[in-house]
Each structure stands twice: as C-alpha cells, then as structure tokens.
C-alpha cells in the first residue's frame, strides 16, 4: 500500500477521534440529575448562612421571650385587678372600724372593770375586748398584706412591660441584621412569597416545658440517600412533609461547607420528581416547590423551622419573604429545590 494512502487514513482516523472527543466533552447535559450545590461561593455563602442563622435564631428566641412576657403580663393584670378589689374591701372594713371607734369609744380594760356587774361579767367583757382587738388587728394586717401584694404585682407587671419593649427592640434589630446580610449579596427586598392557608397542618415537634426548643445534635441516621446524620427535629419535619404528600427526592446531610447541612439541620427537597436537575423548575415541578415551601411556612412554629429558601426567595421568622441571590445557577438560586433549615 502506498505510504501516502496510509498517511491519509491515519489523518482521517485522527480527525474522527478528535471530533468524537469534542462532541462528548462539549455537549451540555441538560436535565441531568446531580446533587444541589447551594454554596457555589463557599466563603461568601458560609458567611451569609452564618449571619442568617444568627439573625433567625435571635428572632425566634426574642419572639418566644416576648410571648412569655405577654402571658406573664396577662396573668399579672388579672392578679393586680383581684388584689385591688381585695384592698378596696379591706380599706372599707378598716374605715368602718375607725368610724365605730370614733362614735362609741374604745372598750378598755378599765371601763370593762368599772362597768362589770360581777366577776363573770368582767371576764365576759374582757373576752369581748380581746376578740375585738384580734379582729381589728387581723383586719389591719389583712389590709397591709393585700396592699403590699398589690404593689409587688404591679412592680412585676411594670418589669414585664419593660421586658416586652426590650424584646420588641431585639426583634427589630434581628430583622435589620437579616436584611443587611441579604443585601450584601444583592437580595433583601420584600418579596411576594408562597403562602397557602390550605396547607396541611403538621404534628408539632417536641419542646421543653417552658416552650423553648431543646438543643439537639446530629444523632439520628439520615434516611435520605445523602447518608450521614440529622437531628431528631429535622427527621420529624422530613417525616411530616412526606406524610403530607411531599414524597419527591430529598437529600439532607452533607459533609463540609457552611450552613446547616453538616450539622444535620437542613434538607434539600427536589422540585423534579426524578431528582435534582440542573435547570429551574417549571410547570408542575414549580407548583410542587411552591406548595412545599408554603407547607413549611405554615408549620414553621410547629416544626421549628429556621428558614426556607425557594426560587430566589428566602423566608425567615420576623421578616417574611425576601429576595435572595445565591449565585448564577439553579442550585445556588434554589430554583430546582426547596432548602429547609431547622433550629
């Protein structure tokens, strides 16, 4: 075979091979299933998530303290009203005693002795004198105790009012902190979000006796394909959502990075039925994400939700829905999955 023909064949084969490689590498894989990456800019995203977590936790704690202060103030208001009524009654009794003493004069041991017809009569009068003294002393003591109790309750009520003002100021500060953190990445403006009053009601997660949330560690197995561990409260929220019909692909624990995933306090819920896709959800997938986000918002207090991110928006207690800019791809902007972070 001539050398020129052989060389031409080798050149043709090489060109065909190069074309195959270029096509294989350059062709975009739209719609491919891949784990969402909500932290494309690890440093900036970690700082943002840390700031959002601190702000959201501060809001929830301040709201809890405010609610507690309101409950205590309500109870103290009723107590003060009852004590004021008691003081008024005791004041009337003491006034009547004083008026009686002024009109009739006080019975003294000397007058009891001089006016007694017999020793037995004297003993009877002396007994009456002692009973009157005990009655008067008891009435005066009761009035004093009721008055002091009323003053103490009013002081406690004043303290609760001041506590309410303090927590309202804290809520405002935490809200400002969250909005400032979001503005740092181009978000933070008030946005129409996803609210559905017809969302199912989830079973509440366990709380402490005072209504606060117990501290939980990453202590239970993550049942999602992500493996690893999650907190009991996160598992409860996941199970409740699935029980209420949100059964598409979910991934919770993720090693490394910022945010709540490594702590077992976050899950990513795919909008698409087949798993995470590298494109923004549309149609039925978008509706699924809307409904899921609305579900977590409605049940935020019952489940212990820290914040929810979906479709370039973030919801936090005390701020409502705000615009969110996480990056330039569907995973970073959370347009292909709903992100749930838990307390």
Automatic annotation (TrEMBL):
InterPro entries: ARB_07466-like_C, TAT_signal. Residues 191-201 have a biased composition (Polar residues). Residues 59-86, 140-181 form a coiled coil. Residues 227-335 form the ARB-07466-like C-terminal domain. Residues 1-34 form the signal peptide. Keywords: Coiled coil, Signal. Residues 184-226 are annotated as: Disordered. The keyword Flavoprotein does not apply. It holds the Pfam family VldE. This is ARB-07466-like C-terminal domain-containing protein. It comes from Asanoa ferruginea.
């Amino acid at each position: 075979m001539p050398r020129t023909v052989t060389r031409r064949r080798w050149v043709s084969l090489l060109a065909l091979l190069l074309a195959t490689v270029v096509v294989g590498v350059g062709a975009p894989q739209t719609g491919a299933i891949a784990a969402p990456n909500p932290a494309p800019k690890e440093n900036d995203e970690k700082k943002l998530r840390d700031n959002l977590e601190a702000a959201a936790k501060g809001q929830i704690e301040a709201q809890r303290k405010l609610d507690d202060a309101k409950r205590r103030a309500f109870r103290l208001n009723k107590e003060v009203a009852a004590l004021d009524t008691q003081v008024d009654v005791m004041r009337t009794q003491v006034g009547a005693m004083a008026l009686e003493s002024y009109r009739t004069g006080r019975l003294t041991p000397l007058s009891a002795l001089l006016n007694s017809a017999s020793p037995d009569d004297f003993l009877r009068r002396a007994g009456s004198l002692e009973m009157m003294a005990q009655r008067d002393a008891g009435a005066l003591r009761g009035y004093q105790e009721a008055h002091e109790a009323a003053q103490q309750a009013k002081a406690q009520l004043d303290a609760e009012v001041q506590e309410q003002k303090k927590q309202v100021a804290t809520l405002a500060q935490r809200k400002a902190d969250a909005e400032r953190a979001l503005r740092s990445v181009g978000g933070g403006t008030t946005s129409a979000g996803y609210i559905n009053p017809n969302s199912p009601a989830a079973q509440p997660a366990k709380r402490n006796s005072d209504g606060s949330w117990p501290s939980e560690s990453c202590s239970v197995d993550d049942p999602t394909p992500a493996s690893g561990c999650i907190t009991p409260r996160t598992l409860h929220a996941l199970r409740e959502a699935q029980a209420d019909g949100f059964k598409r692909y979910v991934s919770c624990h993720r090693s490394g990075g910022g945010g709540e995933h490594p702590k077992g306090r976050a899950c990513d819920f795919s909008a698409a039925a087949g798993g995470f896709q590298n494109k923004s959800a549309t149609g039925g997938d978008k509706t699924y994400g809307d409904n899921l986000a609305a579900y977590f918002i409605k049940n935020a207090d019952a489940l212990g939700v820290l914040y929810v991110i979906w479709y370039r928006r973030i919801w936090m207690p005390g701020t409502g829905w705000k615009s969110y800019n996480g990056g330039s791809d569907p995973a970073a902007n959370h347009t292909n999955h709903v992100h749930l972070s838990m307390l």
